[in-house]
Write a structure and sequence with these properties.
single chain, alpha/beta, Rossmann fold, 4 domains, seven-stranded parallel beta sheet
């Protein structure tokens, strides 16, 4: 691996790198820096968050800037205020020993008048959020007509946040002749569209595989009933005493609910979502960065731009709607050479989503079991013992008190002393988990042994002879996008549904058949009666006296809606 000096970085910039402790380039830096320094080039760089992309474009950008020219020559666009501030701080540190270099962060939530005054004095590199920069353009307070380099940082996130119109307006103000550099974790259709619209014959630098997850991240999932999701979260957290994690939720309300429950249950947690004022948001993020918070419960939008390099876990309380969202979430751990864990808490009907993510990211997920109360107590105890054995004893302060302490404990033998010591710390855990139930939901393979899929979409499970099965018929099929997972998911959403055995599932073009335990016939009829599949109301019929046989005549079908056939 070459050094930064061997990549062509100037000595005055190298001094700034020394302050940051940069010793050798990351793969993305080793690839991008020489390309930018050797010749003018449009460039697409696909690499995970935390791989050193800021230095990859920032170091050559500073080096290529004409410091004698006070006009804006470089423009870096970021999706959030937090990322904008972080990139600016990094660039300023890189340029610490570069005379005549002026870098300005332009973002909403700060005084626009101060930003206008700084622009008047001359700024060579602007780091901006699209919204505030577009505001300054409309006011005629910023001139980007002479920029030589435009960088889209986290381009996929900017598109997810709806900045397409602002990006178009900004790029219309830049000169035709310039170099455009796009940095993104994923190559979505939107990112490809940006490249096609704003770039000319770009060079692509991909670190790892396209749209793949970060290499240092382990992917795990836990399968529980939907109603047990919060209980499962607590056990996962309790089983990792040193956890430092973001917990991702879908909505602001869910974020508030989960954070509120964690705080009420004694966890060091807080919420981060769009309803917070900027001051409140800054306070929460400061506490989390300083590790005064152990758990941050956040929505995807609220967590964008949050720069924390040493998360031990990312927990998906709910999976995001798209795979790019999962890539961004999981990429927040396993950074700066560390190993991280991305956890998904799912229920049975979401299992197919795990398979989709595995396929797209080319990463294998490990299914883990929710730990028992005894396992959690054991892990907590081991952690405590490690802390005790490694603590530094301040003899000067302890020795004067030792005689009194020893006298009070003299009546206790070694075994009793150890048990009391453990009880002080663990009575709460031991009491809470004393009769803790098993939260795990059995695997589909275990629940439906011998399952296989054929080209017709037919799933063969247990033989109907092993248990009394009833066959149901539905008015939806492949044409409506029906999948076996949806049928299984509906069954497992039935109260007590974890006990319902399912046999053969056969999906045809316009209808489907399903075999299930006869004892739950009424519950299944009621559950499907309220269901919709891709907008079509489900009608379900049961074949009386027909267990796993051929499809009955119409006259043998009892409709759940009460009308005759």
């Amino acid at each position: 691996m070459k050094t930064f000096a061997e990549l062509g970085i100037r000595i005055d910039i190298l001094k700034g790198l020394a302050v940051l402790g940069f010793e050798e380039p990351t793969p993305v830096q080793a690839r991008v820096i020489p390309l930018m320094l050797e010749r003018p080039v449009d460039l697409i760089s696909l690499a995970q968050t935390g791989t050193g992309k800021t230095a990859a474009f920032g170091l050559p950008l500073i080096q290529l800037t004409d410091r004698k020219d006070r006009r804006t020559q470089g423009l870096v666009l970021c999706p959030t205020r937090e990322l904008c501030m972080q990139v600016t701080r990094d660039l300023e540190t890189f340029a610490l020993n570069v005379e005549g270099m002026n870098i300005l962060a332009v973002y909403g939530g700060a005084s626009i008048d101060q930003q206008i005054n700084a622009l008047r004095r001359g700024v060579q590199i602007i780091v901006a959020t699209p919204g505030r920069l577009n505001d300054l353009i409309r006011r005629g307070k910023v001139d980007i007509s002479g920029v030589r380099y435009v960088v889209f940082d986290e381009a996929d996130e900017m598109l997810q946040m709806g900045f397409q119109d602002e990006l178009n307006a900004i790029m219309d103000q830049t000169p035709p002749k310039k170099n455009t550099l796009l940095f993104s974790a994923t190559m979505s259709q939107g990112v490809a569209a940006i490249a096609g619209r704003y770039m000319s014959d770009p060079v692509e630098v991909t670190i790892g595989k396209r749209n793949a997850g970060a290499e240092n991240v382990l992917h795990e999932y836990y399968m529980v009933h939907a109603r047990d999701r919060y209980l499962a979260l607590k056990r996962i957290v309790d089983n990792a005493p040193a956890i430092y994690s973001i917990i991702f939720c879908r909505t602001r309300q869910e974020t508030n609910d989960v954070a509120g429950k964690l705080i009420e249950d004694g966890y060091n947690a807080d919420a981060l979502h769009g309803d917070l004022s900027q001051v409140q948001r800054d306070q929460v993020m400061k506490k989390f960065r300083n590790k005064n918070l152990q758990l941050l419960v956040a929505t995807d939008v609220a967590a964008r731009g949050l720069d924390v390099t040493d998360l031990s876990h990312v927990i998906n309380y709910n999976l995001p709607d798209d795979i790019a969202g999962y890539t961004h979430r999981s990429g927040r751990t396993g950074r700066a050479g560390r190993t991280g864990i991305s956890v998904a808490i799912i229920h049975l009907k979401e299992r197919f989503k795990i398979r989709e993510i595995e396929k797209k990211l080319n990463k294998k997920f490990k299914q883990c079991r929710i730990p028992s109360g005894m396992e959690i107590c054991k892990n907590q105890l081991v952690k405590l013992i490690d802390v005790v054995t490694n603590v530094e004893v301040d003899h000067d302060r302890i020795d004067p008190l030792y005689a009194e302490i020893a006298e009070k404990l003299a009546a206790l033998d070694r075994e009793e002393l150890i048990k009391r010591f453990v009880s002080v710390e663990f009575n709460r855990f031991l009491e809470y988990y004393k009769n803790a139930p098993d939260l795990n939901v059995g695997e589909v393979e275990t629940k439906f042994p011998g399952k296989r899929e054929n080209p017709r979409g037919e799933y063969a499970g247990k033989s109907a002879g092993e248990s009394r099965f009833t066959r149901f018929f539905l008015n939806v099929g492949r044409r409506q996008g029906l999948m076996p997972q949806e049928l299984i998911g509906l069954i497992n959403s039935i109260p007590g549904g974890g006990r319902i055995k399912v046999g053969k599932i056969e999906i045809m073009r316009n209808n489907a058949s399903l075999e299930a335990d006869s004892k739950f016939t009424q519950q299944i009829l009621e559950a499907f009666q309220r269901a919709e599949i891709n907008g079509k109301t489900v009608s379900i019929a049961v074949a009386q006296g027909n267990q796993g046989g051929s499809r009955p005549r119409t006259g043998n079908i009892r409709r759940n809606r009460g009308h005759k056939s």
